[in-house]
Specification:
It is a single chain. It contains 14 helices and 28 strands. It folds into three domains: 2-168, no CATH class; 201-449, 3-Layer(aba) Sandwich (Rossmann fold), CATH 3.40.50; 467-560, no CATH class. 31% of the residues lie in helices and 21% in strands. It starts with a strand and ends in a 7-residue tail after the last helix. With 567 residues, it is α+β, with helices and mostly antiparallel strands. The chain is globular and about 85 Å long. Strands 1, 2, 3, 4, 5, 7 and 8 form a seven-stranded mixed β-sheet that branches. Strands 19-22-23-16-24-25 form a six-stranded mixed β-sheet, sandwiched between helices. Strands 14-15-11-18 form a four-stranded antiparallel β-sheet, with helices on both faces. The longest helix is centred in the N-terminal third of the chain and has 23 residues, at 71-93.
Length: 567
């Protein structure tokens, strides 16, 4: 194996040569305490940075095995190391002269969530740190001495300060691992105790701003209504008390600007675990919960929306409904059905982002328009049967209609950011106000079908068959865009990067014209569970910045691809 001194000599010898000569670096080099694998060398100074892996034996890091001996612990430790490396590299990069990414080192940058990533991977023997290095140049000529400083000195410095246990904030690492185990325990207990979400007392739900996911300073801390207060005794030895939301139909009501949507946003983000001091570290929602909204203009391919929409003018079949430009109501009906197809057991709905005619149909409108003339069965008529027939719960934000009082199992009111239980008051109003709304149509929810994707969904050839992420909410398949703005629970660009890799794998290995979308998706996630995200990538070595999305977001992306064909 080549040594670090060989790499140092090579870099210095390349000084002043054309940029393409950097490709001679590719290979594996032995440093004192680690190996450096240079997997991909950028073709010019303006291309994405070069990909490298630092491979260090677990024993060299001296990180105790009790922080690494389960998957949850490895995810927590990997996340902590990623953040520590990121901080160290920012310090190093400030010492590097030059513009852009010249001579600088980067690692995936996590947000407030703890996600399974490819940035730091811990296996049986080694820990791999996946970094990117901007190989320096003056114009298109190599700056070999600067490159040598970055790689020969900067990377070992990173390893020493950000990977070796003796130099880590050991207390913070141990606390993050303990927190992750506590969060996993609460999420497991939700199912055991027939709950859908938990919000700890003292949680900080508002965020700093619309462009910052950090907690708001001086925000009002969350306090549970006494009726819904529940205490979990956690593996760490601590006890945490807060609001436990039972399965069923939960309404969150209140005036405008009183904090209803803030609570729902915290619940929808808390399908993921959060880091210490985020304010939501003990806000835990069922992992498969899906935010449902209207999504005008989206593509729909062969979806059975007949539980909500039937008897369309022109006798259009809604058991196999397709459109390239869905309306608000048809898009929201589709989003519900697709969430059920993706095995979601909790729906999160905010009236602010919903189609009114999908959500409600009041008594006066029922009197004016005969049932046989109205093709839409509102969600208010189906939400109860959805729970009774399929055990799918709903948490619903409403402020403008009391139609859901009749079907709600619990009603909570946000009043100046304080939550109150008003279930009895809401039920009394529903029983005594004399306002009666007829429940039209079949009282069962309807049949759920499972669509089978077809191989000719992805027919592009050559460079056109590539998937490329364009930020958080957009993917290009060749020249065809896939718009993901309706998937509000995507939280990290690296999740979108991972979805592109997963789509490519799904295209090549997942579709066989026999397995349903959920069957093929579950098989792919089974592979990820056992071999990691990089098992899907056809790149050897550094697979890029990837973070695991939920299967709900993967299937949601597939459904928004306008070329999808199913039977």
């Amino acid at each position: 194996m080549k040594q670090s001194k060989d790499l140092e000599r090579l870099l210095k010898s390349l000084d002043g040569q054309k940029y393409g000569a950097y490709k001679r670096m590719k290979g594996i080099y032995q440093f004192d305490q680690f190996r450096l694998a240079i997997d991909h060398v950028q073709v010019d100074p303006f291309a994405p940075p070069s990909k490298m892996r630092v491979i260090i034996g677990k024993h060299e890091t001296e990180i105790p095995n009790e922080l690494l001996d389960t998957k949850d612990k490895r995810i927590a430790t990997s996340d902590f190391l990623t953040r520590t490396v990121d901080t160290q590299l920012k310090h190093f990069n400030r010492t590097v002269k030059g513009s852009g990414k010249n001579g600088k080192i980067f690692i995936d940058h996590p947000g407030q969530e703890i996600l399974e990533r490819t940035s730091v991977v811990i296996n049986d023997k080694d820990i791999e740190i996946r970094i990117e290095v901007g190989l320096p140049a003056a114009g298109r000529k190599i700056l070999g001495k600067v490159a040598s400083h970055t790689i020969i000195h900067g990377i070992p410095q990173m390893v020493e300060k950000a990977i070796r246990y003796e130099n880590l904030n050991q207390q913070a690492l141990n606390e993050q691992v303990a927190l992750k185990l506590d969060q996993t325990y609460i999420r497991q207990q939700l199912e055991t105790e027939h709950l859908v979400a938990f919000v700890a007392n003292g949680s900080i739900l508002p965020r700093k701003s619309g462009v910052s996911d950090a907690p708001m300073k001086s925000a009002i801390q969350f306090t549970s209504p006494k009726k819904f207060e529940h205490t979990f005794n956690l593996p760490s030895g601590r006890a945490v008390t807060g609001m436990a939301i039972p399965q069923g139909i939960t309404l969150i009501v209140g005036g405008g600007y009183h904090g209803k949507s803030t609570l729902l946003e915290a619940l929808e983000r808390s399908v993921y675990d959060h880091i210490q001091h985020d304010g939501r570290e003990f806000v835990v929602t069922q992992h498969d919960a899906m935010k449902i909204r209207a999504e005008d203009g989206r593509n729909v391919e062969n979806v059975d929306i007949s539980p909500f929409i039937d008897n369309l003018p022109g006798k259009k079949d809604t058991t196999h409904f397709s459109t390239e430009n869905a309306s608000g109501s048809t898009s929201q009906a589709t989003n519900v059905i697709e969430a059920l197809e993706a095995e979601s057991s909790l729906l999160l709905v905010d009236e602010d982002t919903s189609a009114t005619n999908f959500m409600i149909r009041d008594g006066r409108m029922q009197q004016l328009i005969a049932p046989e003339k109205e093709p839409i069965t509102p969600f208010s008529n189906k939400v109860k049967s959805l729970y009774e027939d399929y055990n799918v719960s709903t948490i619903l934000i409403v402020g403008g209609s009391g139609d859901y009082f009749d079907v709600a199992d619990q009603v909570l009111m946000m009043d100046e950011y304080h939550l109150k239980d008003v279930t009895e008051e809401a039920k009394e109003i529903a029983n005594t106000d004399g306002y009666k709304r007829e429940i039209d149509g079949d009282q069962s929810f309807g049949v759920l079908s499972h669509r089978i994707p077809l191989t000719d969904s992805f027919s592009k050839k050559g460079k056109e068959k590539r998937f490329k992420a364009k930020g958080l909410h957009s993917i290009m398949y060749g020249h065809d865009p896939i718009n993901l703005t309706g998937l509000e629970q995507l939280v990290d660009d690296s999740q979108t990067n991972a979805i592109t890799v997963m789509l490519d794998y799904f295209r090549r290995h997942g579709i066989n014209n026999q397995n349903s979308i959920i069957q093929a998706t579950n098989e792919m996630y089974h592979l990820i569970e056992h071999e990691g995200l990089e098992a899907l990538s056809h790149f050897n070595g550094h697979p890029g910045h990837l973070a695991l999305p939920r299967k709900q977001e993967f299937i949601g992306t597939l459904n928004r691809y306008r070329g999808l064909k199913v039977k």
